[in-house]
Amino acid sequence: MTAHEGSNQRQSRRQFARRALSGGVGATLAAAAGATGAVAQVGGPIRSFDHVAIPMRNTDAMLSFYRALGFTVMEGANICSVHFGDNKINLHRPEFWQSGTFTLRASAAEPPCGDFCFVWDGTVDALKVMLDGAGAEVIIGPVERTGGRDGGTASGTSHYIRDPDDNLLEFIVY
Questions:
Q1: DSSP code, position 70
Q2: Are 67 and 3 in a shared domain?
Q3: Which terminus of the chain faces fewer neighbouring Cβ atoms within 10 Å, N or C?
């Protein structure tokens, strides 16, 4: 890839992100598909995430870490997953994503590539106790942040940590 092609890809991603923030998911997907005229209604049939997926480097350390944070962990031959509520994060084992045969993934995704924000239903003090108990080092926080609730206008208190693969994890208390 040339420097010019890389610059065009970054510019395209920034434009996509700006459309997503200003026009919502429906408008962004329609624009990305080249649609003109009527756009999907914001808040339409897309209700929530089902799961996200990332590759991982160190299976044992990652699964131990997420267990210590209180996630339910499931282990499969190629993919492990961590669950919370009705959500999950698929963690692709190194031998799976590095094999060259698994192509149903972001082509350039390599650890660390995740940035996740979790809603903590307890207090800020209880969050600190849980993070300390898991051996997680808070790299930033407590800090006030605008989260995804109430159409992206709700304010909460966040703490940021990193998992063993260096993915960024944010815990927000509303």
A1: T
A2: no
A3: N
